[in-house]
Amino acid sequence: xxxxxxxxxxxxxxxxxxxxxxxxDVYVIPKNHGTGYxxxxxxxxxxxxxxRVNGEEMRIPDGIAHFLEHKMFENEDGIDTFKKYAKYGASxxxxxxxxxxxxxxxxxxxxxxxxxxxxxxxxxxxxxxxxVDKEQGIIGQEIRMYDDNPNWRxxxxxxxxxxxxxxxxxxTAGTVETIAEITAETLHKTxxxxxxxxxxxxxxxxxxxxxxxxxxxxxxxxEAPELNVERIYPDExxxxxxxxxxxxxxxxxxxxxxxxxDPVQLEEGEALAKKSAEMSIILRIIFGxxxxxxxxxxxxxxxxxxxxxxxxxxxxxxxxxxxGLAKDPDKVYGEILAEIERYKEKGIDEEEFNRAKRALYxxxxxxxxxxxxxxxxxxxxxxxxxxxxxxxxxIASVTLDEVNARLKTAFPKEAFALSKVLPLE
Amino acid sequence: xxxxNIADGINLNIIHSDKFKTNELxxxxxxxxxxxxxxxxxxxxxxxxxxxxxxxxMLLFNRQLENLYATGLGGTSAKLGxxxxxxxxxSFLRNEFIPxxxxxxxxxxxxxxxxxxxxxxxxxxxxASYVEGEKxxxxxxxxxxxxxxxxxxNKRLFEIMCEDEAYSVSHLGTPEDVSAxxxxxxxxxxxxxxxxxxxxxxxVGVCNEDEFTAKIRQSFxxxxxxxxxxxxxxVKETVQKLRRVTEEMPVNQGKLSMGFRTGACTAKKNNPxxxxxxxxxxxxxxSKLFENVREKLSLCYYCSxxxxxxxxxxxxxxxxxxxDETAAEEEILRQLDAMKNGEFSENDIEVAKLSLENGxxxxxxxxxxxxxxxxxxxxxxxxNASIEDVIEKINKVTKEEIIAxxxxxxxxxxxxxxxxxxxxxxxxxEE
Lengths: 425, 431
Fold this sequence. Notes:
The complex is a heterodimer of chains A (425) and B (431).
Chain A: E1 4-8, E2 13-19, E3 25-30, E4 36-42, E5 50-53, E6 56-59, H1 64-71, H2 81-87, E7 91-96, E8 101-107, H3 111-122, H4 129-147, H5 150-162, H6 176-180, H7 184-194, E9 200-206, H8 210-220, E10 229-231, E11 244-249, E12 255-261, H9 269-287, H10 292-299, E13 308-313, E14 318-325, H11 329-346, H12 350-366, H13 371-382, H14 391-397, H15 400-409, E15 416-423
Parallel strand pairs in A: 3-9, 11-15
Antiparallel strand pairs in A: 1-2, 2-3, 4-8, 4-9, 5-6, 5-10, 7-8, 12-14, 12-15, 13-14
Chain B: E1 2-7, E2 10-16, E3 22-32, H1 38-50, H2 58-67, E4 72-80, E5 83-93, H3 104-117, E6 121-122, E7 125-126, H4 128-144, H5 149-161, H6 175-179, H7 183-191, H8 193-196, E8 199-205, H9 209-220, E9 243-249, E10 253-261, H10 271-283, H11 288-296, E11 300-308, E12 313-321, H12 325-340, H13 346-362, H14 367-379, H15 387-395, H16 399-406, E13 410-419, H17 422-430
Parallel strand pairs in B: 2-8, 9-13
Antiparallel strand pairs in B: 1-2, 3-5, 3-8, 4-5, 6-7, 10-12, 10-13, 11-12
């Protein structure tokens, strides 16, 4: 079976897709950039702590996805993965978010050699008691570093305020206590579940042919057993957990993040893509840099250029985040609530709708400027059942009526939470 | 790259690239890094961004940008060695990707000159309310630097290490100096120093070179200026005595910043050799510092070295657990000694060269990086430099040269930002 081609002619981009015989979904996006970029990811993040695999229910320690990501870089032959890449001039990294773990590299040469390293180390786990113990020290430092980071605290407190039961309210890295529960055995069990190739995807964005990519997959990957993972999420009320969380830290100016929990939490594919496009249009109109709101509050010094509003769409949870720095966060919060009410009453007009759509169209094209953005976004969209290459047409398909209908339901009063980080003393 | 003189003191640099969906236009004004100039230079672009003659309010300005397919437009100032550079940037979709066939390239060129050269004036001066508003924002920004502890530690390091050199000056200025600015003094700066600053225009993207040059020539010729040639940064080659400063802050993690003099290596002398040395020593995740201080001894979460080539300075930044700072410093210095003794392999050199080559080649994929790299070479007096040349020179560096370079590195200042929250946490843990 050969690769399928998907093309978006208006932006002059295409990709190739094939389900590899190992069970892995393989995507190749040809691009003539000097830097090739490859991402190999699993749909497994910090929220996946309770699930049923082939009928058996499992619960795993908080922070294990991130811990596992760190440990994957060690190999049985004793050679560190970074060293293997370094031999072929690649620059490598990995990250863990709430719902995905991604291993990646970028390279200006030797794409196939580097791809082989990527596929090889991620498909060969190696953990011992000693290496696990040592990692607890390193991650302990990383957690401390995050504890000192006001942006992270602000963001995380916003999630904690919004979500009462949903595991997105757990710190990605876990805590010193929860990672202490992690053993080589729990790592192996977790790996066997979520690093099954049928739960993963490879996306290569480079000057490379699909056949070259397939050849590397053939050489490294073995067929994965059938997998049936059912993620278990606790019931999440429509109302927020706490209306407000405030923390004092060493900062010069108060920071705020307003979280608005989306009424629908489990949603993927087309419905999610559409919701995301509609919400982006709404937020751009009400709170974007060309909005009345921003212009008024910036001019009178209530907010500064750090102000932003965005919709974060995921298949297991979605929310709006409006954040920035301000001397008086409570005042800004009041203004935000009032502006949303004002728009709910008056609705969005055609002129502002068209302007926002035009701007979002441009943003959806701009993603294709860098192989890094393309590959990372592609994977994030994919794991939500969406397609990066269709984004511009999804935006184009949104109508003014749909946006006005969404505006009425997207901001229920009980769904608002405020997180603040205030200066000490 | 094509480099064309447009008018006195104004050059246009065109980098053709069809890799991007967007074009990028940048205008750089170069000023000396000075305490008197810094607050003005960092305030000016923010004031200009508030409104111009044609779009006098932010709302009108931003609506126009949104209509122009969300063209990004902004101005910032940055410290580049002992110079301060004000850069105005426009980033916009290429004409081919615009559904309604607007000639965005032409519209953005005009918008750029409106933005930079035709500000909104009141009684012949920059608008006072914009000046006051942006002064507040700038002061907030300066005070916010403390939020990023790592960057704050590095800033303190340079203030202490380079106290007699221009390099100690923060390009943003101090809150006191920003407070003292008035609409008069900023307008005066705009009409004198700023009006004399040499201009380097960069375009990265797709254009018809002749038509575009003609357009730029027409737009910019009225702003020709008598500009001084670029000066070289001062380089201190010796160190009298190692300085050590510790300051406290109520945070969990300590930040250790160490400054070194590399007088024998600067942007013009032994630069490729130093780049390879730095890459092996602390410039990458396979470096000696990362491997030993972080991986083997778990003394820190990050530990890396960077090189300020025009100043002949190398600095090491690391995040360490309080109490481990002496051990971390000792290990860092031990690794430096190991470099001086040639304790690294041919493979280490190969890997470092590949990593550098990878980094340089990747500049071609990032319009900002590409324009910045060429700009930095121009103001360092190397107009004819090219990325290919640098890669070639890097690949010729030998082990003997790296050892020789390593032995010129002298520690100057050790700065430690000591977190004072740790005791409380540890006591709490014991209960």
